[in-house]
Amino acid sequence: MRRKALLLSLGMLAAGLVQAADVSFEVGNSSESTTTVRLGTQFDFATQWYQSDTGHLGGYWDLGYTYWDGDDASSNHTLSFSPVLLYEFAGESLRPYVEAGIGVAAFADTRLEEQKLGSSFQFEDRLGVGLRFGEGHDVGLRIYHYSNAGIKDPNDGVEHYSLRYRLSF
Length: 169
Description:
By secondary structure, the chain is mainly β. It has one helix and ten strands; from the N terminus they run H-E-E-E-E-E-E-E-E-E-E. 11% of the residues lie in helices and 60% in strands.
């Protein structure tokens, strides 16, 4: 069952990459000392709001696959989808931003290290900061929180923190 979920996740991610304008790579660590590696594809919103001399509000859709490599040989896989709002500050060559999003995620297993997630379905909350520069480059830091919002017990939840690189084509 886990292999089927992994193959399905990788297939969906590969299909998204074929049509995507942006791709991202993240490495990080969870609150349970689990190493995370995330591959993603992003589709920018077609609209920007509140444009001013300071910056503008925009956003993107994010489809991601995360591999969780646990210290006790337990691993997990996640497929997630989230709309993300992003405020980008004005600038010539360097453009800082802040972002936030709430989406959904599916875990291949309901355990991650000592955490009991309760269900494969989880909500994915994120906060991030970053810097856009050059021709389509972006580096940033992110904090993710996964929880099923009490839909099913137990609901231990888990966080992970990551460093991200995004390339726009």
